[in-house]
Amino acid sequence: MNSIKQDFTIKDLENISGIKAHTIRIWEKRYNLFEPQRTETNIRFYTPTDLTKLLNVVLLSNNNFKISKIALMSDEEITLQSRELTFNIAVNDEAINALKIAMFQFDKIQFNAIYNNLLLKKNFREIFYDVFIPFLDHIGLLWQTETLLIAHEHFITNLIAQKIQINTEQLQYNIHKSDKTYVLFLPENEIHELALLYLNYELVLRGFHTIYLGQSLPLENLKHFLESDKKIYFITSLTIQPYDDKIEDYFKEMNDLIKGTQKEFLVTGRKIEKVKHLKFEGNIQLFESISELLKII
Asked: What is the DSSP letter of 129?
């Protein structure tokens, strides 16, 4: 557990909670809600317990609890009240805040409670677009600012991945369009799988046959599918891999693989910005988002 972040700046707390540092300081001084510690050089810092308490306080505050009333509660009461709220509320911003608490506490039970309550108000697609995508976008920002640890990201994304897989499995007998096959994969050393998993769900929902190959697949492994007479679309999502100095070579290899065939590559992910200037002999299409890709399917 040495990799788990043990201290946070007030800026970290602001980024994660959405509460301005100025307000957090007021809550400290006026209501004694937090007692930051100090380094040997007198720099203030907060513990993971402080962070969790702040997220709980924000959740209560957003649900008609006055700060003055919250300040009179013990830490245990704050936790219990916020946990009770988590089991009863689950709409967009409030659900996103509750997901943050579940993530930082590594609390699978709380995550499932939030999700199940969302299902009472939304279908799975609405949950993904209205809650999971904004939540994951925020997680990405926290990761970029080094506010979030890989352990937290992996915990929460794995839980979301499980929900996508469960909903996809429920659709497996929905396949009724056999004229096209979609082969989904990630490049070597790429592990950011949520976008691809969700694309697979959307394709199965539409009745298409999909072959899901998952993470870290060398392009040469796709040669088997080139022998098929079927109309095949290869779909990949590039988040981290290939690295910038390898990206053009990767697309050239992709181009050579399908050049002269009727097969196609559909590519999405942040990495496509690096290759928009390239011209391809094979049929390679670039999409800035999942939504853009789905429009042509």
From this structure: I
